[in-house]
Subtilisin-like protease SDD1 (Dendrobium catenatum), 728 residues
Amino acid sequence: MASATLLLLLSFPFLAISGHSSSLQNYIVHVRRPNNLFKSDNTRLQRYYLSFLPASPTISSSSRLLYSYREAITGFAAQLTAEEAISMSSKPGFLRAYPTPTYKLTTTHTPTFLGLRSNTGLWHHSNQGEGIIIGMLDTGIASNHPSFADVGIPSAPPHWKSPCQLPPSAPCNNKLIGARSFVGKNASDFHGHGSHTASTAGGNFVGNANVVGQANGTASGIAPRSHVAIYKVCDLEGCSGADITAGFDFAIQDGIDVASLSLGGGSASFATDPIAIAGFRAFQKGITVVCAAGNDGPYSGSLSNEAPWLITVGASTLNRILKAVVRLGNGEVFVGEALFQPRKFSSRQQFQLIAPNSCDKHPAASLKGKIVLCESVANIPAIKAAGGVAVILKNNKIVGATIVLDLQSMPSSSVTFEDGAKISAYAGSAINPTASIEFCGTVISNNSSPSAPMVAYFSSRGPSLSSAGILKPDIIAPGVNVLAAWPRPISKDSNHNGESRREAEFNIISGTSMATPHISGVVALLKKAHPNWSPAAIKSSIMTTADMVDDRGKPIMDEKLKPADYFALGAGHVNPQKAIDPGLVYNISGDDYIRYICGVGYSDDDATIIAGREVSCARVGQIAEAELNYPSILVAMNGTKMTVNRKVTNVGEAGSRYKVEVESPKGVKVKVKPQKLKFREVEEEKSFSVTFKRIDGATELRRWAQGSLRWVSAKRVVRSPIVVTLKV
């Protein structure tokens, strides 16, 4: 799990310059495409790009050119000084140049948790994603891992044309059908992040998958019969915007169906965000792009990847816990979790419990033979070396009820903030405080405490800073303590009881990085089941069928154990079994998005950069954010009344009938016209209006209020979240 910062400093409308002016930096340069120049003419295209580079008697222009893009953007990446970038702006056809931004990574049981089972539902109707190609833009791949074996996987589709830049000892196969590297010599994964995300999205079935004996079972990706294509755009230091754009460029040319990006860079203008720009080009080619919301929660306005044509994914917990029960000397019991669970630990014995102000500064001699209560960031090896028996790791207030596991070197139990406070109070007040830890292994906690899903504390929240009128994130999915492939063994040295070393090539990690490939896998399944659906239709089906309640039938909670709001949940928690048959979808075309771009204040040049073609906002027109045919509705009421319009397409049966049900936000009355929809045919479209009227006397009780709009038939519920900002 990592937070991310996108470094973009806009100095001029057309330039983003920072750093020392005379030093070479990697720049992304956007230019206009001449009318007589076709993308298929690579030689002429590159010659055109080279014409923008400075002439030098010592350095050739071609040596400065890093990438010559064809599909992801109209432009190139090159090494330039700030002065050269500024002088380039006077050349005909130039649009914008900026230093390439840097992104960071947003870092078994989940298919079952999501209701995916063989011979039924979405897995059955999609044949587990057979033939669909998921493009992973990440840190590469551990190609020799069993998750990427091609047992039972058919050959790649005839149109596929990617090379395989992997070591000869672990080449591509029918599962792993292509690998390109834009950092390093080949696409091998030396980090682990890329292998983990790829196996989560499309990994094959692997039996006896576990980490140090925990979470044991058969692991698989969400779309286990899909193909996986690798675009290595990140290394141990992060991800360059120029490399990400290059990865997109080749992925579009290669013919992927889904693009999965578990990385982000904070809020940015769409016209200077390589993921937003390349993602729009992919959208226009029929590719669904799925991106991480970011790990900068629980703070508001902390999102990455906010463009509405992207699926933005937040993270939630799942109902599998690695149970480690803490029992205090006064009889109180607290359910914690631990990844390392020694079988020989004396769970019945009560040890003295101490709670020092600082575990890292406490005298080592006083820790021997005791269970130590510490903050979750404590120096565990030092406590072990001092002779501590075990540690209880308590969350701080910000982390709350989200338990994120790490592999500790000694017996431990991680507990929530609330439970940690109670344990701390006991340790500070009892005359002779004692505690024990009982390791209970892997437990599926259906309909019991803790509830699942729950929004993870780190999952970035809205509102969107780039487009305040679009509700983001779009969806949440499992992203806490997810087990998936890892390129090297995860091992435990012998513990203090002499237990033997154990190894496994899987790992359990957390982040919106882990949530993202769950949605990418669901997209692959839906693409297989409905090959003619657009990316917008697929996104709509995921959003309008999402769950708003947990496994106990209660509202999904956040890390504070309070009902999560829509800026944390988006449309809710993904429900793949319902998404296959949504009944109605909200479709959006590329032209709709261009009008939206113009409507939110982007210039003609900005729109041209994003669209990849010449755009005049005066000619194409514009729409307000609230008028974009998005599956969710967010309106800012400056007056007493406001109306927005939507259009739905029938993807159910001919003759389907729907009646509207509205949960009005507090302080607002919502009226929908018409209140009933009847569809005579499949693919028939129907429009409706939603009018918001402020209730007399209603004041700004909070910054915003939320509700929902549901189209209900005899078989389906098509739900859209509503957020209304109330201003006095």
DSSP finds 17 helices and 35 strands in the chain. Residues 213 and 502 are 8 Å apart (CA to CA). The longest strand covers residues 434-444.
